[in-house]
Design goal:
heterotrimer, A alpha/beta (141), B alpha+beta (98), C alpha+beta (544), A: 141 residues, Rossmann fold, 5 helices, 6 strands, C: 544 residues, alpha+beta, Sulfite Reductase Hemoprotein, domain 2, 4 domains, five-stranded antiparallel sheet, 17 helices, DUF2849 domain-containing protein (chain B), DUF2849 (chain B), UCP030820 (chain A)
Chain lengths: 141, 98, 544
Amino acid sequence: MVEFLRFRDDVPHEEPAVTLDAFLGQTNATAVRLESDEDARKLLPQLGQLALIEIAFPKFRDGRGYSAARILREAGYEGELRAAGDVLVDQIPLMRRCGFDSFVPEAAIDPAALERALGRYDDVYQKAADGRSPVWALRHG
Amino acid sequence: MKILTGNDLGTGDVVWWTGSDWSRHVADAVDVDNHGEAIAAAEEAARRVNAPYVIDAEQTPQGPRPGHIKDRIRAAGPTVRLDLNIKPADPAAGSWVI
Amino acid sequence: MYKYDQYDQAIVDARVEEFRDQVQRRLAGEISEDQFKPLRLMNGLYLQLHAYMLRVAIPYGTLDSRQMRMLAHIARKYDKDYGHFTTRQNLQYNWIKLEDAADILADLASVEMHAIQTSGNCIRNISSDQFAGAAADEVTDPRPWAELLRQWSTFHPEFSYLPRKFKIAVIAAEEDRAAVKLHDIGLQIHRNDAGELGFRVFVGGGMGRTPMVAPVIREFLPTADFVSYMEACLRVYNRYGRRDNIYKARIKILVHEIGAEEYARQVEEEWAHVKTLGLDPPAGEFERIAAHFAPPAFEGGLSDDLDRTDPDFALWLDQNVKAHKQPGYAIVNISLKPVSGIPGDASSAQIDLMADLAERYSFDELRVTHAQNIVLPHVKKADLYTIWQQLEANGLATPNLDLISDIIACPGLDYCSLANARSIPVAQKIADRFAGLDRQRDLGELKLKISGCINACGHHHAGHIGILGVDRKGTENYQLLLGGSGAEDASLGRITGPGFDEDGVVDAIERTVEKYRELRTEGERFLDTYRRVGMDPFKEAIYG
């Protein structure tokens, strides 16, 4: 069972994440944690200095973090984007599509189930934050 | 009396706790007194039942009769398709459910 | 009709195996019911009163005979020989075994069908006009847009855990046969002054415990930017829709609380950003989809003459057959509302028969309507009598379309674990009370809709006459509503007063319609009379 998943080759960032309020008040932090009701767009002016953004999933039903992740990737953020909290194995493929590249799930994840989930779909219908070509692009070369 | 009901995990069938097992027939249900929650938790953990819950019922000569119409419909079947009831086309079904 | 290509098929096939994997993990105890529930719901599998219920998507209500026969096959093989057509153009099986669910999905996938997103807090089956492609009043066929939406919404990575379920309907006619203003998003395709096609966008309609008619948030959305605009609408909702209270989580509450203008402003702001991301498929993709919906090869020069000598046939013609845009053709409505029947239910034999008729006489097409009936969209007038005879022989020719016995009813407490009262027996008693066709036809168009709980799956708010079943101290009680409409003149019904028992509500309806007969002017529908005279005369007739 796996408690931390990371889909990046660079060295994991060690600095502890600060709250959004703390980040906005102190300009030199390089890691921040966003709660699910916090506005990701507040980070955009200082995106360049961030190496880790952690987004909280207090309940698996709370899907706000999916939008937050895409907003950050759409704004050009390239650092680590971590989903932390009630993250279920069947959600990780969608989270990957929204731009998350690391995961700290509350309950450890079965790596075999995750591998099956991530390899399930060869193709996707929408353009998202993961660079995969949607089927409409494949259909029209 | 209190009786325990739920659905079979695999088939979805409505089932009733008999004291040692699950039956499709509410007539087999036993009074669980105040042990219902504990039995439900153990049986659910063993995956012998899905979504179990305790209900109030009345003991009658024909066996337990659930207190709420919803559970009587669960016990008997849809009132509009008596042919699909657990005792198909039972002439007594109507007065028992409503 | 749309046909899957290799990509569509691979995605649906993969979904079957994904669900098989999820079911196996549940049966093996690797995941709990709490964890499994959202997974099974995302695939339309509920635990209902008697068993698991499976809801199969019929995208925009269109299917062919092969698909229809598969629905019958599944009913026979895995269920109790019947299915229930719903108000969102889906089909429900009531007696499904969890152990069989993946095999059923595999059977569905073999005919390009699925149960994807027929439940859960995601974008649900896209619904549309059952007369699409056949109606004389449409500006274009709305279904290619609905198919584009189906693909866009399938496993949408950002919008699979919305605050609440999300229902979208698309039409392209002035007459609204799909209740678009009572959807989370309703889209009406129309032409602007320059003759271009675009969407009128309604957002924030719905029924349930807080019914609302959707306001227009954009009068004309160019078709090219359609997907990115939907993306913006959903993103604003996903970020700001309420998550603190399940009863306030639908988009209608957000739109209501911040106002349609402010919601529209936020969408425009988001859209200005997302439309730069290249999310919109190229025009070629729309054209590829639209080519599947090209009109069938209608014969020219057919006669519009009909032999009306059989009076029963003539009655059915007048009530259930509608005008087609092509001369010599007609639209046949098959009522699933026989007297003493269950609204929306059809046996597998009936489903097979309708499939046969579609294959032989309707260019292999069928439609499901939000009023829980079936349509043969493209029928030669010369074939109508033969079709009628076969329908008649199989209990499918009840000539009651849009009459008081053409009742929309949810499954209610006979099947549904959320229900507070039974709906079907009330529908049956009303249909029995008004069984005489002369009387029904005298009453004219009268849309009666029954829900067995406040969730309003039976659209009671939108009924000319609506009935809401409630639980009053353990007994079933029925509230009566008047004046709703789900059509282009959408409105919400108002409660008449104290509720009734099952027989009492039937009596109250009889008093209501007798009052209408007394008050109506020539040619005035019940709804129009109600709107003209208001609630009071009816209230007095009902309660004395």
